[in-house]
Amino acid sequence: MEHRQTICAPRAPRGATLFSLVVAAHQISGSASPELTLLHLFGRSNAYIASCFGRSICLPESHFLGGDAGSLIKEASLFGLYAAAMPPARERRWLSALTKRSQRGPNPQQFVTGMAGQQLQKRVMHCCPECMRRDRAEFGAPFWRQVHQIPGVDHCPEHRCVLWGACLDCGRSQGSERHWNLPSFSCPHCSGRRFAATTRRMTIGYAHHLHLVGKVCSDSSRFLRPEARTEILTAAFGDPKEPELQAIIDQLLAMWGCGSLEELSKDLGAKINAKFIAQVIRGSYPGINPLATLALLSLAGVALKKRGKISKNGELLKDPCS
Question: Rounded to whole angstroms, how far apart are CA atoms 256 and 272?
Fold first, then answer.
């Protein structure tokens, strides 16, 4: 009879990544190798847990965390951020592709955003020193957070402190598929204590964006759904068939302190151009691209707040950030 080691899910903060949950469980269990831990948890030794977006990251049924693979992906990956902007049918299709044993499926970047080459998460894991301190006090160990791995998010939405990236001494990421490490105040590879960090300004647009990203990742994402965002954008910008496109672009750039949409795309970590803005406002954009959509919703929220506008169902729309 095959012996299966019991591996328990660790106590962890809300928003912890699947990678950090598995690494913590692996460390607690004393398992002989990461491959053996993956075999016990997911029935395969190459589950590729550092990301839930790659073409080969399709988890078979797993009862780790007390649920099936679909629940696991929803709770411990960036699936929720991108799925929040999808129509229900598209969300179900994507989740089905991620949970099947087959490695075949749609190109994730193009399926999720409608654009090839759109980065869905950072290439190097990032962490917040304040979250790490709190995790150690509450859970005994720090965890990687989903929200800190989002492109364009250079500060913790909760603490507003700069996130740490790769080690400046050896240039390596603390954690990866090859190196199963939880975030730390010193590099596990060279013991260095200096980490890459942004020097970007906290503009009005970026501050609003951080708040909205935090709300979506904390499961408060109703305003990002196609129907809700269309209502908000229409209320803010008027007739969606004839939007004052240049005025909207100028206001958006002013909020972010950017000189062009190309510069804003870099700050957002997502592609945004005039065609995208026009399509989203008209409700005809074929892809998802939630990060760029959030930038528009933030601008809409500021406009509605000034007017004290109310939606059809009586809910205040004055600011999606509130």
Answer: 13
Q: Whole-prediction pTM value?
A: 0.88
Phi, psi of 30 (to 5 degrees): 70, 25
pLDDT tens per residue, range 79-135: 888 888 888 888 888 888 777 655 555 566 666 666 666 778 898 999 999 999 999
Distance CA 287, CA 8 (A): 38
Q: Tally Cβ neighbours within 10 Å of residue 208.
A: 22
Of the candidates 179, 144, 180, the one whose C-alpha atom is nearest the C-alpha of residue 165 is 144
CA 168 to chain centre: 24
Tokens encoding 284: 């005809």
Q: What is the spatial distance between Cα 112 and Cα 150, in angstroms, rounded to a whole number? A: 14
Tokens of 265: 């795309």
Tell me the DSSP string of 78-113: THHHHHTTS-HHHHHHHHHHHHSS------HHHHHH
**Residue 245 CA: distances (Å) to CA of 76, 238, 269, 278:** 37, 11, 22, 7
Distance CA 250, CA 91 (A): 33
> Does residue 50 or residue 113 have the better pLDDT?
50
Distance from the first to the final alpha carbon of the chain: 57
- The Cα–Cα gap between 215 and 37 comes to 33
On whether the CB atoms of residues 273 and 249 are closer than 8 A, the answer is: no
Asked if 240 and 230 touch (Cβ cutoff 8 Å), the reply is yes
Q: What integer pLDDT is reported at residue 259 of this predicted model?
A: 96
Give the three-class secondary structure for 194: coil
Distances (CA, A) of 111 to 69, 115, 141: 20, 8, 35
Amino acid at 208: H
